Amino acid sequence: MRAAVVRTFGGPEAAEIVEVATPEPAAGQVRIKVAAGAVNPVDLAVRAGLFGGPEAAIGLGWDVAGTVDAVGDGAAWRVGDEVVALVPGVADPLGAHAEYAVVAADAVAGAPASVDAVHAGTLPLNALTAAQALDLLDLAPGAKLLVTGAAGAVGGFAVQLAARRGIEVTGHARPRDEELVRSFGAAHFTSGGVEPGGADAVLDAAVLGAAALEYVRDGGVYVGVRPGTQPAPVRGVRTDAVQVRADGARLAELVRLVDEGVLTLRVAETYALADTAKAHARLAEGGLRGRVVLLP
After folding, report:
1. Are 152 and 158 in contact (CB under 8 A)?
2. Angle at Cα 10 formed by Cα 51 and Cα 277, nearest 5°?
3. Please, are residues 46 and 58 in contact by the beta-carbon 8 Å criterion?
4. Are 51 and 33 in contact (CB under 8 A)?
5. What residues contact residue 256 under an 8 Å CB cut-off, 6+ apart?
6. What share of the chain is helix, strand, coil (3-state, %, to 5)?
7. How many whole angstroms separate alpha carbon 255 and alpha carbon 246?
8. What would the pLDDT profile of 114-167 be if each residue is shown by its tens digit?
9. Which is nearest to 99 in space by CA: 58, 56, 59, 57?
10. Which residues contact 266 (CB under 8 A, 6 or more apart)?
11. Per its UniProt record, what SUPFAM superfamilies does this chain match (predicted)?
């Protein structure tokens, strides 16, 4: 099969398409024939060598939507099931950007019925990140939450999920994105900041870091999206960062919210797997309000 890998760290051109053996599922695993999968900033970081490791073949891609085509012993899925899954890892030889992907059966959820595979392939990584970040924040209904990068993939999901929990959300984004962010359920919008100490918590999807702490009240909470890069605690503010993990049961809940119209899936551009380098270059340019999706 064909797969996108990086063998020498570098720019978009370092994302190569190679021929490799089609993987076989072991016990408790399923193999998915990939229909679509989003390209995310973490893919660019892996390609550039930000996570280090040996310069051997490292697979690219975390998001997958497709069809189960082989099942290992004990895996509770059937050939032909349409599914989505998270394929986490920054040093594995194969990722989701391939013609086939093997994942743990408990990382898989049935695909949304209301959208096509292209849109479904934008859900797992960013929606799970947003949901698990909100778990770390542990806010009660009525709490005041600032979401930075509220027009982006993680930020947009976070606004929608938090608003659904009854949290009072202020969305932080560029002025041109105000209508979009409010449509996600944000009660307030800012393109600058909020009153110092005016928020109970911040979910820092824009990776502002220490600059975002001034908006959090004493004893509040900060959660970032890059593990190990959260700022040091100040004024009793608890700081943490989400390290996304595969969770098929949680992903199934998010799929249900897609079908209920709670979560919005946005696609900006699609590329063939052969054009992975072009997809990486386009994502790196920025300015997108939707995901770049690869179609094997």
Report:
1. no
2. 110
3. yes
4. no
5. none
6. 30, 30, 40
7. 14
8. 999 999 999 999 999 999 999 999 999 999 999 999 999 999 999 999 999 999
9. 59
10. 119, 122, 153, 156, 289, 290, 291
11. GroES-like, NAD(P)-binding Rossmann-fold domains
What sign does the dihedral 116-225-10-289 (CA atoms) show? positive
**Band (53; pLDDT cuts 50, 70, 90):** low
Angle between helices 276-285 and 41-48 (to 10 degrees): 110
Percentage of residues in the chain with pLDDT exceeding 90?
A: 91
- If phi > 0 it is left, if psi is from -120 to 50 it is alpha, else beta; for residue 291 that is beta
Chain mean position to CA 149: 13
CA max distance for the chain? 56
Alpha carbon of 51 to those of 46, 129, 205: distances in Å?
6, 18, 19
H-assigned helices in 71-195: 117-120, 124-137, 153-164, 178-183
Q: Which two tokens stand for residue 66?
A: 């497709």
Q: Nearest CA to 72 among 23, 3, 21, 2?
A: 23
Amino acid at 237: V
Contact 105, 72 (CB under 8 A): yes
CA of 222: how far to CAs of 5, 25, 161, 205, in Å? 34, 39, 17, 11
Query: Could you tell me if 12 and 96 are in contact, meaning their C-beta atoms sit under 8 angstroms apart?
Result: no
Neighbours of 166 (CB within 10 A): 11
Residues 6+ apart with CB under 8 A from 83: 30, 32, 65, 66, 67, 68, 77, 108, 109, 110, 111
> Which backbone phi and psi does 261 adopt, to 5 degrees?
85, 10
Q: Beta-strand (E) ranges in 45-118? A: 58-59, 63-71, 82-86, 100-104, 108-110
Higher-confidence position of 92 and 169: 169
Contact status, residue 295 vs residue 35, Cβ threshold 8 Å: yes
